[in-house]
Amino acid sequence: MSGTPVRTVAVVGGGPAGAFCALELARLLPDTAVDLYDREDRGPGAGIVLTHEFAERIRAVHPEVLRLPESAYATWDETITMIDGERIPSGAFGMSGISRQVFHAQVRALAARSPRVRLIRRTVTEPPRADLVVLADGAGSELRRERADRFGTSVSPGRTRYLWMSTPSVLEPCFLLKDMGPGPLVVHAYPHAAGESTFIVEADPDTLSALGLLGLPVAESELRLAELFRDELGGAPLAARTAGWQPFRTVANRRWSDGRTVLAGDAAHTVHFSTGSGTMLAIDDALSLARCVAAHDDPLQAVAAYESIRRPVAEQMRTEAAESTAWFEQLCRGERLEGHQTVFALRSRREANTFSRLRERDPEFVARTVARLAGHPTDAEPVDVPLTVGQVRLDHRLVDVERRDGRCVLHGADGARAVGLVVDRAPELPLEGIDFLAVRAGSEGGRVSRSAPAARIRGKAALPIALLVDEQLPRDEANTLIAAARTDLVAVP
User: What is the phi/psi pair of residue 287, to 5°?
Assistant: First the structure.
């Protein structure tokens, strides 16, 4: 059938990827018959997140998709982070939370209006017969799992556990960092309808075990968590949308197609929920796949073109998501909470969000962060906030150090010197004659991974931390790391 236009398509999965694929195929190929399979037991879900920019791009092609009742969505331009009772506002520009149930129903209904799209409400247990089969049935795709060796599927569970819930209460878009003693409970929350919000609790399994939450029946977890967050919820209940505490599973595939069967959305790749981009990636997959099918007579050429376009985007997003996952895992393991600097670290966990970019977009928040670092309002950048290390008074935090015998020496302008010990873990006892700890930067990954050893030791040690780098960091990157409390100074041997 090579060189023969696609006349029949079977799309398995009625979520964002599957429904948008059917919708776009119906628009571009009105003579192609599409069967859209959606399982009967689809649950109520909670909320999804879209940026206003993405929403406008979707409206330009499918204007009716987001014509939803006002009761089905909420919008915001600011996120609140609650740390030890302190409310810290920071920008989250042009965001919308939308009822997953209403959104999915709208897209499926629009697709099914086409005379060439047939909506079939049943679970698919065998690959359908068609010129092209699209598996868009989510991260747990059974049909993909049956061919895992051919797709080269890997599933990697994260360390933390989460419980995805909703509440019949309109909450502020927020992160809640509640120190529970054994470790923090971290909440990702946002409104997604006029009377409902998404409420995701994430924690280290050791923390959950110490609190008696791990292994509880879901109903008991709902009650316990509603009580723990009674003040934040205003006494509203919680309803779980996942089957108990579970790790986030990162799905990746070495190949996105097997003959005329192709993966899209979460079936092809997943990114941690903290990025808020899973739905948008799935929709873009679907639109790209449909357009490639319309542009190529040969379905094999179409799926190859689709993968060449979308894989680099998914890989870049997966890299960013890995950094976001790592940051929250470090936080959940008890990393020291430092108010504005912790929020700055949260905002800057993505490589693009450097000090200069955040200062441009959210100057008031960044000014408050630097003021907390300096102890008073200042126009100085983080690298220019003075710091005393031992007997050395530093006017700048980008410094040269002398390395010898596992130690570092920092020389002051007045002839004073400070001695640092190069370590890879926090010392258990006070160190006589040591003024600071020097920690080598990691060689792989993004900002969070490279600075993870320094941040971990900084959270446990009483001495200043110097991040040792092999070559001078750009000033903006050094500002970012210091403002985020990943290190106290940056040193080049």
Answer: -65, -40
Q: How confident is the model at residue 43 (pLDDT cuts 50, 70, 90)?
A: low
- With helix as H, strand as E and coil as C, how does 286-325 read? HHHHHHHHHHCCCHHHHHHHHHHHHHHHHHHHHHHHHHHH
Round to whole Å and give the CA distance between 140 and 144: 8
Residue whose pair of structure tokens reads 């993870």 in the numeric block: 452
Handedness of CA 25, 30, 31, 35 (dihedral sign): positive
- The residue with tokens 């993966």 is 263
Report d(CA 376, CA 57) in Å as an integer. Answer: 43
- Across the chain, what does the average pLDDT equal? 93
**Dihedral (CA of 434, 440, 446, 449) sign:** negative
Buried-state track 458-479, b at ≥16 Cβ within 10 A, e below 16: bbebebbbbbbbeeebebebbb
Q: What is the 3-state secondary structure (H, E, C) of 348-367?
A: CCCCCCCHHHHHHHCHHHHH
pLDDT over 70 for what percent of the chain?
A: 98
Higher pLDDT, 283 or 43: 283
Do the Cβ atoms of 80 and 171 come closer than 8 Å? no
